[in-house]
Design a protein that fits this description.
46% of the residues lie in helices and 6% in strands. The protein is mainly alpha-helical.
Length: 170
């Protein structure tokens, strides 16, 4: 069943379970229209009410939890721990294929994503990246993560981070 989000975009569930936009109210908007548009308030406390508890509950049941809108989270009293992506990539580069965390991540990935068509080099990169993120989250007692450079990771590092983030359908 289609629904409209807070930006006025109408979505429907497409084949495969993901959502696809049906319409965009700003498709033919002018600069004047944009100035008058009733944009949602990213700092509205209602956006994040109960989010900490829901993220912790989902994480405890084995779901990957990915969040965005860092400033809105902080405004709602949810602490945010940042790390430079270069630090994550540097740690990943130092891992070896035989490291226990890398092997475990490869097995985990294979359990929820079909991998036969993915070259081993890229699977290994994803596993190392994922192992480092998992380790960093455990070290900092975190229950959710948000990775901002999706397209840069795909283009320059050769991995698709969404494969790591989506373990089960929520």
């Amino acid at each position: 069943m289609p629904f409209q989000d807070e930006f006025g975009i109408v979505w429907r569930r497409a084949e495969g379970g993901h959502f696809a936009p049906l319409g965009n109210p700003l498709r033919e908007a002018t600069v004047d229209d944009l100035a008058k548009y009733p944009w949602p308030d990213p700092l509205n406390p209602g956006r994040t009410r109960g989010l900490r508890e829901r993220a912790a509950r989902l994480h405890a049941t084995g779901y990957a939890v990915v969040l965005t809108l860092v400033h809105a989270l902080e405004q709602a009293g949810i602490s945010v721990e940042s790390v430079d992506l270069s630090e994550i990539l540097g740690r990943a580069a130092r891992l070896k294929e035989g490291d226990a965390a890398v092997k475990a991540k490869l097995q985990e990935m294979g359990a929820y994503v079909p991998t036969p068509a993915i070259p081993n080099e890229y699977l290994l990169r994803m596993a190392k990246f994922g192992a480092v993120v998992d380790g960093w989250m455990a070290e900092n007692d975190l229950v959710a993560n948000a990775i901002q450079c999706w397209t840069a990771l795909e283009e320059f590092y050769g991995v698709v981070p969404t494969r790591l983030a989506i373990r089960r359908r929520v």
